[in-house]
User: Fold these one by one.
Assistant:
Number 1:
Amino acid sequence: MKRNATVNESKEARPAKRDPEGVRRDILSVAMEEFSQNGLSGARIDEIAARTRTSKRMIYYYFGDKEGLYQHVLEEAYGKVRGGESNLELDGLDPVAALGKLCRFTFDHHRRNPAFIRMVMIENIHHGRHMQLSRTIRALNQQAIEALEAVLTRGQDSGVFRLGVDPLELHWQISALSFFNVSNAATFSFIFGDGLFTADGQDTLSRHVADMVLRYVLQPEHMGAIAKDGQ
C-alpha cells in the first residue's frame, strides 16, 4: 500500500507534458522581446530558455541555432502584420473605405507593436541579410503589394482614384508614415514634447495619415469622399 502511494505521488509530481506547438509559440514570443530589446548579438539564448522554462537544447532542436531563431522571429513578425491585413476583408469595401481602413490598420498595428519596428530596424543594421535567406518574408510582403494593387485598381476603374499611382510606392508611403511614429518616438517627444504620443494624439495622427494617403490618390472631384467616409 505504501509502495503504491509512493508511485502515485511520483506520478503527481511529474510535470505535465507540454504541447510542442505551444512551446514553440512561447519561444518565439519571448525571443521577439529579447531580440527587439538587445539585438541579434546581445540577445541571450539562456535568457529565452529560462523565461520559457525550456532549455537551449530544446530551442536549438526547434530552430537550429541563434540566427535560425532570429530569422523565425522575423517571419513570425511579418506574418502577424500581413495576417492582420488579410483579415480586414478589403474586397468587401468600396475603394475609399478599403484604403482608409488599410492605412489606419498599418498605423495602429505599428504603434501597438513597437517590438516589430525594432526588429525591422535591427535587420536593417544587418543589411537585410537574414531576410534574404527567407522565402517566407518575401512571399508575405508580395501579397501586401498585390492586395493594395487590387484596391487601387478598383478605385481607378470606378473613376474615384487617379491613374498612375504605383502600389509599391504607395505601400512605401503608408509604411514610412506609420514607421516613423514608432522608430523616432523617443527623440521626437524629447525635442517637441509628448503631445502627439498620448492616446488622443495617436488617434488623431492615425486619422490624418489615412487622410493624407487618400488625398494623394483621389481624383480632385472626389475629395469629399474623405469626410463622407469618416476618415
Number 2:
Amino acid sequence: MAQGLSVTASTQTPLTRNQVLSARGRSLLKRLEGVRLKPYDDQTGLAITQWVAGATIGVGHLIDQADWSAFSAGISQQQAETLLAQDVAPYEREIRKVVSASLSQSEFDALVIFAFNIGRRAFSGSSVVRLVNNPKASTGYASLETAWKAWNKSQGKVMQGLNNRRSAEWRLFDQGVYQ
C-alpha cells in the first residue's frame, strides 16, 4: 500500500464523531502495554511501594501523587479495564479531532495505540498526523512509515521494545494485522 493509506473503499470510512478503539485494538494495546495490577515504575518496570514520578498501574495508567493511596495496594482486573476505557477516550477524541483523512478501523486502532504511547500533544503535532492527512506533506521523513518508526527512543536512546512496538503498530496501520 502506498504510504500505508491505500485501502479499499469498502473498508475505509470517514472518521465519525463516535469512532472508538475496537475490541481487537484494545486487546493489542493490552498486549503491547502489558497489564499490571500492582504499581510499578514506568521507566524501570520495577514494582514500587511508594509513589515516584512515572508510577503506573493497569494498562499504562499513570498514577498522580495525590491518587497514590487509591492505587498503592493494587487494583483488580476489572478496575484495570475501567481505567483503560477512561484513559483511551481522550486519545480517541484527539484522533477524531486532528485526523481529516478517511480511516479503516485498523488504521484508527493503530493511531490510538500509537498516540496512547507517545502522548496526545506529541501525537497531534507529529509528522505522522501531517502525513496521514496529506501523504505529500513536507516533513523530514521519506514516508509515513519512516515518520512512525522514528518514535523509537526513550530518554534519547533507541529502545528495542519501542522498535518492536512501532513495527506492530505499523503492521496494524498498513496491513490490518492485529498482532
Number 3:
Amino acid sequence: MRLHVGCAQWTHPAWPQPPRAKLASYASWVNAVESNTTFYGIPARSSVESWAAQTPPDFRFVVKLPQIITHERRLNDIAAPFHAFAAAVEPLGLRNHAMWVQLPASFAPADLGILDAFLRGAPREHRYAVEVRHRAFFDDPRAAAALEQLLLRAGAEWVPFDTLTLFGQPATSLAERDAWMKKPRVGRRTVALTGAPIVRYIGRDSVPETVAGWEYLVELVVGWLGEGRSPTIFLHTPDNVEALNLARRFHAAVRELVPTLGTLPEPVSVEPPTLF
C-alpha cells in the first residue's frame, strides 16, 4: 500500500535546495513529480538519464506529452513525435508512472473519436492518464459518461484538476489573480477509473485555506487505499512557495488515518554555503 505525493515542479527559489542535484534534494522530501517541462519539448535523453540517477526506483514521474502532440496536432499524425518522446523518457523505466495527456480546453466531446484512436494505437507498455478541460465533460453527464467508458476500455485514468478551493474566494494576491486567469474552472471529480488514480489539487496562498479545502481528498485517498488502489496526489498553490511542505503535510494527514501507510523519506539537510 503506497501513497505518492508531489508538486508541479522540483525546484523553487523558496525551497531549501543545493545549487546542484536539485531533483535529488526534491526527491528526499516527496516521492512524485509532475513533469511539466516535457510539454515544451522532447527532452534530451542525457537529461532524462540524470533524472533517473537522482531519484530512487519507486519515485514517480507523471510525464506530460509535448504540446506538439496534444495541442498543435491534437493527437493527429503524431506517430513520429510520440515515439521520439517515448524513446527520450525510456531511461526513467518504471519511474515513468504515466504518460500525461493534457488536452486543450477546445478539445470537446465531439473529439472523443480522436482520443479513442490515439489510446487504441498507443504502445501498451505505458500507462496513460488523460486531463480534459472542456466544461461539457463536467457539466454534461452524457459527455462525462462517454469519456469514462472510453478511458475504461483503454485502461487509462481521468486526471482531475481540482480548482474549487482556488476559486472559492476572490483572489487576494498577484499569484492568485494570475492563477484565476490561467486555471480551469471545472467541476470536482471523485471517481477513480484504475488502480492508480491521479489528482491535481490547487489551493490558495493561505496554508489554512488550502488545508481546509483538501479534507474531502484525504477521505477519498483513505478510501482508495482501502480498496487496494495506489493514488498519486499533486499539491499546488498559486505561488507554490509552501507546496513542498504541503505535500508532506497531506501525506501525514492520510497516514494519521492509515497508520500502516509507508513513510516518506527524510529530507536531506542543505548546509549554508561557506567561504572555504
